[in-house]
Amino acid sequence: MANYKLYLTAFMLGLSGCATPGWRSVQLQDYLQPYVGQSADQIQQNLNLRSLGFQTLKHPQRSKESLVFTVLRPINIPVPIAQAYGDPSSPASGSVRLGSISTSQQSYDVNFYCHIIFELDQQQIARAIRYEGKAC
Questions:
Q1: pTM over cut 0.70
Q2: Is residue 12 part of a domain?
Q3: With helix as H, strand as E and coil as C, how does 41-87 read?
């Protein structure tokens, strides 16, 4: 039972590590900063997040107040499987541990999103950038 708690704790820490900002997020913020002060049309025309290695939705969403690019971060999460070790005929000798072997049938895919939001003024000029989502 103690092993189960240890594996569960490690799994949860791994998930929280996936949600924390990393080096890529800092580089992205530095890369996007020069776009502040440009028009929404210029940003749409020149900003290519895919060339930086990001997966994105095809087209940004545009409104009077904002221009939103969505970056996807797909993550495959393995599902731990309980495995019995020892002699199955003897109830005292078998112990149960969580296995770390993962196949496509024993995992699931999750897409985390990062919305990069350029806040626009009345002339459709970007005045600020906000980031929302677990993949930022």
A1: no
A2: yes
A3: HHHHHHCCHHHHCCEECCCCEECCCEEEEEEEEEEEEECCEEEEECC
Query: What is the distance between the alpha carbons of residues 120 and 8, in angstroms, rounded to a whole number?
Result: 44
Q: What is the pLDDT of residues 100-121, one digit of tens each?
A: 554 556 888 888 899 999 999 9
Q: Which of 91, 39, 49 is nearest to 69 (CA)?
A: 49
Query: CA–CA separation, 126 vs 65, rounded Å?
Result: 9
Please state the domain count of the chain.
1
What is the C-alpha to C-alpha distance for residues 69 and 56, in angstroms, rounded to an integer?
A: 7
Residues paired with 66 in a beta bridge: 119
